[in-house]
Description:
This protein is of the alpha/beta class. It has 3 domains: 10-141, no CATH class; 146-260, Rossmann fold, CATH 3.40.50; 275-620, Rossmann fold (3-Layer(aba) Sandwich), CATH 3.40.50. 46% of the residues lie in helices and 15% in strands.
Amino acid sequence: MIYKNRTTPRSIILGIDIVIVFISIMLAYLLRFNFNIPQTEIDLLPWAILAILSIRFFSFLLSKIFAGIIRYTEIQDVIRVLAVSLVGTVFIALFNLINHFFTDLYLIPRSVIIIELITTSLGLIFFRLIVKVSYTEFKTNNQTQKNIIIFGAGDAAIIAKAAISRQPDANNKVIAFFDDNSKKTGKKIEGITILPADELEDFISKNEVHIMIIAVQNISPKRKTEIANLCLNAGLTVKDIPPVNDWINGELSAKQIKDIDITDLLERDEITINHHEIKKAFHSKKILVTGAAGSIGSEIVRQLLVFNPAHLILIDQAETPLHHLDLELNTQKKVDTTFLIADIREVNVLTNIFQKYQPQIVFHAAAYKHVPMMENNPAEAVKTNILGTKNLADLSIKFGVESFVMISSDKAVNPTNVMGATKRIAEIYIQSQGMNDVSTKFITTRFGNVLGSNGSVIPLFKKQIQERKPITITHPDITRYFMTIPEASKLVLEAAAGGKKNEIFVFDMGKSVKIYDLAKKMIKLYGLELGTDIQIIFTGLRPGEKLYEELLANAENTLPTENKKILKAKVREINSKEAQELIETLIEQSRSNSENTEIVKLMKKIVPEFKSQNSQYELLD
């Protein structure tokens, strides 16, 4: 009746249902009269059968209980069959009463009506269940079964199991639940035992397990990492269920249970921010964001939308990404949003924008950031990262902007490359302007690598793994700090809302991550084996690249803020006038086609701690 992905035609199902009703009628009469039906009832039997079959036929047609794919019958389908059977019986009883009213004769014995309801209901349900069981057995015999264990024994775990059971084309079986709560262990969920979490490793070693699903909504990042690492090391595929808010129409489907992401395994604690203070700072404000189409800029925009600014002016040079952001935000009709293609190096263009839109707050996220590219193009790095920042800062003062927030980088600390040095010089210019008697509040935020950003190692590794190409790492000992894009953006908003004039904030980036270990973990996440399925090769440090990144320079220290993830940096004092004069000279050099070495030499004068590494400019040190 059922072959692989084919389904039995509806007409055949309807025909079988009618046959079941006919058999049920005959069985009801036999049971009612102890298998000895009187002649009077035999004479009326053809009319009784015709009446019952007609009513059942039309009830089936109207309800379409034959239209479902019966091999996937669930409890709701059984309830529907019962309901249709009961309604049909009500109409059969009404027909019997009407017939009695006109002929003074009960065509169908009342007890037969009750027995027929029971036999028909059981017959229809049994038929559907036998098809489902037969299909399951057929599928099991022709497809390798995947054994699944679920970590968690709460509502989310039960819903996850139900979603797996409803998955039509997969031969998956949940064989155990595990939970940290000792009060739950030993109990059963749908006949499956809940085991203590400390038996997880032993269970995996003694049983054939293919998949682990983590189904705990409020699990700590550290605990999640521990479980995932244990399972990955045992060769299991580790999956995760999304937050309840992301379930479609409040229901979890098997397709939403995705492979766990590497970002979930970096033990990042959840970021909490002061929504009240941020709303006070940005609600009903006109806000300009540069680099708005970039990783950080676009996320800052998304976060700002929550606080209902009056107007968002979004600037970027990249047409296509800005267009994509426009399409994404097109549904956010409650916030007035303007998208502008503009180059922050063009002061006249920026002046027109400031004159026309009169922004009250500026988030400056536009920058060149790829270290090797900037090492070879220092003039362009100066023009974008320093001149662009200078243009925006000067115009912010001129047009009375309340707050100017610069997105800096950990590479500005003890810079070893041109990119980091330009970011530090931009910071110095911001500091120097903040030291003057101006109304604009200048704030700088520093953080390290953001996961998933353009240029991050994680998208590169994913691409290399998917293409089965060797993963390229510059050095076996290289480490980096990581933070997710939403985390970094939230902290930027909090620092901007609570910061005072001329402050530099650094973010708690958590633990430094060894890139080699990160790559190995990603290989396991894809179910591959290092050295067999994929290789890791070391290419050597790129020009200007550090082995280890820092968030604070040696001569700096930090002060705590109300948010434990945000620290205030105490930086060395600068000579405002001298710094501005040197920066002006540097900008002129970048415009006048000066030699790269001359430009970098002056950068080192402005930033004495700038010591080149693995670079042609080491000779200048």
